[in-house]
Structures are given as C-alpha cells and as structure tokens.
Design brief:
The chain has helices at about 5-50, 55-60, 65-80, 85, 95-105, 115-145, 150-165, 195-210, 210-220, 230-245, 250-255, 265-285, 295-305. The chain is an all-alpha fold and about 325 residues long.
C-alpha cells in the first residue's frame, strides 16, 4: 500500500520541523558556549570599567534579598574564572566570613565604598552552602533504617498514633489498627524501607506541628469514596520532597524563606506543605479510584515544580481552620 501525496507532504513537513528543531538547539548550545567562554568575561570587564563595581556588588545592590539575588550570586560564583570565587560555593559555614573577606580582596571591594556588600554576600553564601548541607542531613535520615529494637524509633512510631488517634488505644504493637492511619500491614516498619526514618519523622512533624490539619487530612484519607492510604501517601510525598531537594528545585523556596542556613526543620515544614496541599488537590480533583494515584501524583508534582519556577515562591501551609 503506497503513500498518498498528502501523506508524503506531511512526512516531509515533520522531517523539516525535526531538522529545524535540532538546528535551533545546536545554535543554542553554540551560543551558550561562546557566551560563557568569551563574551561574558568581556561584558563583565566592560561594565566593571563603566560602573567601578564587580558583578557580585551589582547583584547584591540591585536585587532584594531572596531567591533572585542568591541565585544570581550563585551563578556568578560558579561561572567565575577566579578559583577563590568558585571554591566559595563549597566553603564550611565556620569559614564563610573569612571567605567573604578573600572575595572582597580578590575583587578589590572597599568596605567604605560599599558597606552593605559584605553582609549581603555572607547571607547569600549561607543560603547556598546551607542548601548542600541540608541535602546531606536529609540523605542521612533517608538512609537510616527503622529499627524495632531502637527505643527512639519505636517511641516515635507510637507518638504518631497518639497524635492522630488520641481517643483510640492501640491494642498492640503489631495490629491491623495501623491500617486506620494508612499503613499497609500489621507492622508499619515495612513501609519505611524506601525513605527510612525520614518518612516517619515527616509524618510525626506534620502531626505534631499541625495537629488539627493532620487529623483533617486523615479524615479525608478515610473517606469511603475519595479515600487513600494516609501514611503510605505521606511517605510517597516525602520521596517527592527529597527528589525536589536533590535536584535543586527547592532552592528558590529556601532562599526566600530562610535568611541564612536552611535546616532540617525547614525541610520538614516543606513536607507539611506538600501533605496539606496534596490532600486539598486530591479532594478537589475527585479521582474515580485510588488506582489513579500515580497519575494525580504526577500532576500535583508538576504543579509544585511550576510554583518553584517563580522567583518569589514560598511554599508554606496556609490552613483555612
């Protein structure tokens, strides 16, 4: 069976479009290389001569504190041909002040002429290096396996039950009752394999710091038609938060909400946002079945990633209670 003239024309159009797209991408790569390798240096040099200020000074003075300023400072440091500036991104928190002094010396920045620069750059570096430290701390918790013989682990698990089900006594440590708060089996420890203690700590943090909201979410999760497994979904959202942190997507949020070094509690707060907002999203979408969870989870994930592209983004729980 042969192709009609129309089919042949369509194939040619598709081929030409594909070729053009590849061509534009290649031109983009070439431009990026030329700009970063040659033009950027001379452009910075020209503006320095015209204004008497280095790029970092202009960033710190022209942009308000937050994601826009810190992101631009991070790019400037990472793209610099100066070793001192590039290595600043990996500096320990205790040596940051000394690092800022070295940068000021390298760029010939006089404190008398720009008295706000040192503090502004110091905050940027606290945020940038703190984000890397936060990932290490989160990763350590993710790798920590729930251990039934560890009294602290067990106490935390029982605390989760008491926070969510204050009027119902747990009959035993291993019981079908765990299904009432969304665990899969009689022993919740098996559900923490993927995210380790990070998953449990997030669940407890949400229940302890937003108790009313957490119980509200649990009631929605136990809905006869729109219900879902509260704890299992919570652990799944921990994985989402972890992947966003690992990819660097959470940087704008932390740069806008933490004026300094982000810590574990800030990551747990971000999880609370995901847990609360996913429940609102799920209820509003009214899925036909829990079998569609992955589809709606991905849709919610894309919504969050879109929010994170806003330089002014702050993802915080805004309860209507």
């Amino acid at each position: 069976m042969g192709f009609s003239p129309t089919s042949s024309l369509i194939l040619k159009v598709v081929y030409v479009r594909g070729w053009l797209n590849k061509g534009w991408k290649m031109l983009g790569y070439i431009w990026q290389y030329v700009y970063t390798s040659f033009l950027r240096y001379w452009l910075k040099w020209f503006i320095r001569q015209a204004t008497g200020t280095c790029e970092l000074q202009r960033i710190c003075s022209n942009y308000k504190p937050g994601a826009t300023r810190t992101t631009k400072a991070e790019y400037s440091l990472r793209s610099s041909k100066n070793k001192v500036l590039r290595e600043a991104l990996g500096t320990n928190k205790g040596k940051l002040e000394q690092c800022v002094d070295q940068i000021m010396k390298e760029k010939n920045v006089k404190p008398q002429k720009d008295p706000l620069f040192k503090e502004s750059l110091h905050i940027c570096l606290l945020q940038i290096t703190g984000n890397s430290s936060l990932y290490i701390s989160v990763e350590d918790l993710r790798k920590e396996v729930f251990n039934s013989e560890n009294q602290e682990h067990e106490a935390m698990l029982l605390k989760l039950w008491d926070l969510l089900m204050p009027t119902v006594k747990l009959e035993s440590r291993i019981t079908k009752q765990w299904g009432d708060i969304g665990f899969q089996g009689d022993d919740p420890k098996t559900d923490f394999r993927g995210m380790g203690m990070l998953g449990l700590i997030n669940l407890v943090f949400f229940s302890e710091n937003y108790t009313e909201e957490a119980r509200q979410v649990l009631s929605h999760a136990n809905h006869p038609k729109l219900g879902y497994s509260y704890a299992i979904v919570g652990i799944n959202l921990t994985e989402m938060a972890y992947s966003l942190l690992k990819s660097g997507a959470l940087k704008p949020h932390f740069y806008n909400t933490v004026l300094g070094t982000p810590e574990l509690r800030h990551f747990h707060q971000l999880y609370c946002y995901l847990a609360y907002e996913f429940d609102r999203f799920w209820v509003a979408e009214e899925p036909e079945s829990i079998m569609q969870f992955n589809q709606y989870r991905e849709k919610f994930h894309n919504i969050v990633k879109t929010h994170l592209q806003d330089p002014d983004v702050t993802l915080t729980v805004r309860s209507k209670n």
